[in-house]
Amino acid sequence: MLTLIVFTSMASAADVTDMPSNLRGDVSFSYEYSHQWSQLVEASELVGGVNESASRMTFDGEFALRDWASVTVSIPMWLEHNISWSDPRTMAWSPTEDTGSMRYGTEIEGGVEPRSGSGLGGTSIGLRVSPISETRGAKASWVIGFSQRLKDESNIFTGSADELGAGVGADTTSITSAFSTTFGESLPYVVVSWDNRGDSSAPGTDPETGESVLVNMTSGNSASFVSGIEFTSTSSANGRSWFRTDFWGKAQYNAWSEVPSGTYLPDVLSGTEGSTVVRGEYIDYTIGLGGHWRALPTMQIDLSIELGTNSPTQLESSYQIYTGSFSPRVAGGIQATFLYR
Length: 341
Prior knowledge:
- By secondary structure, this protein is mainly β.
- The chain is built from 1 helix and 20 strands.
- 1% of the residues lie in helices and 59% in strands.
- The strands form 4 sheets. It has a 12-stranded antiparallel β-barrel. It has a two-stranded antiparallel sheet with strand order 4-5. Strands 11-12 form a two-stranded antiparallel sheet.
- β7 (124-132) and β8 form a beta hairpin.
- The model has no long low-confidence stretch (mean pLDDT 89).
């Protein structure tokens, strides 16, 4: 599922290792949308479906302190984060399995109200360093990135039904290593990244006082590998304007994490509702197509679309309900970057 919200890879081959020159900078504005459809499966029996979608706008800025070092800032705005269900069933008690089961539940007439939220996400501040670069005479470019995203107490787990936030909200330390080179008109590239997430917050109950409080939940770490190649489709005579086509593949491992019971299932037993449960680990698989248009020396437009799926995962440790073997996901986005070089 999308709790770690998988959006498109906006950066092109040149961008993943491209940096402004000394005391120059770039700013960009992007819009991204992602939607995933998953079946709910229990003991090989289909018991409904869960869908998750999100749309987000992001402001990104980068300023070069030296030709080989720059600082970055990223501010996301979640326009919507939505979790909904198709053909929902009630959760019934199974005495033979000694746990809740949707196989013995009944169809919920009229459906279930979607879980939906929006709002600002945590700001990210980072540093990018380029040990080698083709712009400085090397045969390849290598950029290492470090960033820290601040915790956001307003997330998809918090607030009332009408005032939910969006995203997971956990503080995140990210490390990225990107390589690219040039072979004629093609630019192959590889990006490896690691996200170490802190705790996210959700409403809970203090076991000593019985009062309602925010409790901390473990957010799953992730590691990803991206490999792609970009081709110059057309360019102006002076090379200052061009259009490039980009193809890539991505695999991302997502570790187990904690969520409030009832986040991804349409109905749960009263004994677990709102308690902290574990969602299992899984792997995302993605292929993508992008177009990158340097319309002017000072402006670039990026378009991207991705298709993906993920391995089956247990949505809540309290129930033997998993996502299906194929959970299609589609994502797309557009970004405008203004360059001061």
